[in-house]
Each structure stands twice: as C-alpha cells, then as structure tokens.
Amino acid sequence: MQFYEDIAVGAKQSFGRYEVDREEVIEFASKYDPQPFHLDDEAAAQTHFGRISASGWHTCAMTMAMLVENLKANKQAGLGSPGVDQLRWKKPVYPGDTLRCESEVIEKRRSASRPEMGVYRSRVRVLNQDDLPVMTFISNGLIRTRDPEGTD
Fold first, then answer.
1. How many Å apart are CA 115 and CA 55, to the nearest integer?
2. Computed from CA positions of residues 99, 75, 87, 29, in that sequence, does the dihedral angle turn out positive or negative?
3. What is the spatial distance between Cα 87 and Cα 151, in angstroms, rounded to a whole number?
4. Among the CATH numbers 3.40.50.970, 2.70.150.10, 3.10.129.10, 3.40.47.10, which is that of 4-144?
5. What is the pLDDT of residues 56-96, one digit of tens each?
6. CA nearest 50: which of 94, 89, 8?
7. pTM for the complete prediction?
C-alpha cells in the first residue's frame, strides 16, 4: 500500500490501454454530448475533424477508467481528488485509436488543516497509438499519510 510518504516528486508512470470503439463513441455522445460531429459521419466530414470523433468528455471518462485500473494494480491509500487543473484536448480521438497514459508527480504537500492527509499533483498526458498527446491535465490527488505527525 502506497501512502503520502512513499510518493516521490519526479516519479513517472506509464500505464493503461483503451481501444476506442465507434459504437461507444456514438453512445456516449448521444447521451452526454450530442453534437453532430460526434454522431454523424456526414456532419463530421464537414468539420475540421473530418470524421466522427470522441467527445472530450468521453476522452476524460476513458482516461478515468485507465487511472482506476492503475490504482487497482498499484494499491494506494487514496482519498479521492478535489479536481483537475489545466485540462486540454490537444488532438481529436477517433474510433480505432488506442489510448494510454503517462504521469509525473510534480508536487506534494501535507494538508495544513488535516495532518492525516497529503496532496500530490501529477502532470498527466493521454497519448494515442502514434504517441501523440490527445489530452493533458494536472491531477490533484488526496492520500492518507502513514504518520500524521511526520514532517515530510
């Protein structure tokens, strides 16, 4: 089990594999982001996308699935997240793409008000099968400390 004290600034990870499925792209868009270029080949062909692309919010959801799988494989005393910063959709995600993640811990600190908790920030890049970044963001994670009285 990984605690706050085990997290090192500069630590890097590569993880995940998510194959983007056309039916899933359309199903997600139909429910949550029904813009024509996520739903219809002809409409998408008339845009800069050129073809149906996944919603950016769907890309976030696919990324969350990869993050959770990584957390299952690498047990952590996680306490959730207060959110993300600097979310950017860099390139379209298309059906047939295969996504993966890279992360680097860029900062950590103990909570001033809750000494049993630490906060760490990671720069996350989501890449496609050509190693091109399709999405980036800063993740803010909350994690239990092993020693609430520590000075780390």
1. 39
2. positive
3. 32
4. 3.10.129.10
5. 999 999 999 999 999 999 999 999 999 999 999 999 999 99
6. 94
7. 0.92
What whole-number distance in Å separates Cα of residue 55 and Cα of residue 53? Answer: 7
Cα–Cα dist 18/34, whole Å? 22
Domains of the chain, by residue range, sit at: 4-144
pLDDT in tens, 21-46: 999 999 999 999 999 999 999 999 99
By CB atoms closer than 10 A (0-12, 13-18, 19+), residue 46 is exposed
Here the tokens at position 6 are 């085990």
C-alpha R_g of the chain: 18
